[in-house]
Write a structure and sequence with these properties.
This protein is an alpha/beta fold. The chain has helices at residues 42-53, 63-69, 75-80, 97-110, 121-125, 127-133, 146-159, and strands spanning 2-9, 58-62, 83-90, 115-119, 139-141, 168-172, 175-178.
């Protein structure tokens, strides 16, 4: 499988199957979901649709749901087979921090030449901290992201990298840029 952009919705805790896990009271507040909060944010689907309508080959995958549905599902084995120029991972709710950060780490390790992007409410709030602390995350798209994500893709197409894209925070040569 080869795509321009693959959007990934992480589970709340990436290794929830490997160790004892107490979901806590917050897990019981969203009855339509599970303790891993597997419902992707509508913004991610909106961005995927917008990119698709602008000619990009896009795929959306719910890693948290895959992990809950198949006890034998292996993230690394699965993501090795997925090729994308850009991996977009949502960090909308704070409960996904562990899952999103660790999923980004895996994507960069398996696909070092791909651009790893985080977005969402929590990523927007902590954009500088994320870019500073996690070198495997290349870009944080802040706020409403349909237009900025399209501009990010056109920047990558034209220049081979991210430059001068509104609503983004990114690192170039260890210098953090906030657009």
């Amino acid at each position: 499988m080869s795509y321009d952009v693959v959007f990934l919705h992480p589970p709340s805790i990436l290794d929830f199957r490997a160790r004892p896990f107490f979901p806590g009271p917050l897990a019981y507040t969203v009855v339509e979901s599970t303790h891993q909060f597997i419902i992707p944010p509508i913004g991610m689907l909106s961005i995927a649709d917008y990119l698709d309508r602008n000619g990009y080959k896009v795929y959306v995958d719910n890693i948290g749901e895959r992990m809950l549905q198949g006890k034998d599902f292996n993230i690394q084995d699965y993501l090795k087979k997925v090729e994308a120029r850009v991996f977009g991972i949502d960090l909308h709710w704070i409960v996904h921090a562990h899952g999103a950060i660790n999923l980004a780490r895996i994507c960069k390790r398996l696909h070092p030449d791909s651009v790893i992007v985080l977005g969402g409410l929590t990523a927007t709030r902590f954009h500088e901290e994320i870019i500073t602390k996690y070198p495997f995350i290349d870009v944080v798209v802040r706020g409403e992201a349909e237009e900025p994500f399209l501009k990010l893709m056109t920047s990558i197409d034209a220049k081979g990298h991210v430059r001068e894209v509104p609503n983004t925070t990114y690192r170039v040569d260890n210098k953090i840029t906030v657009e």
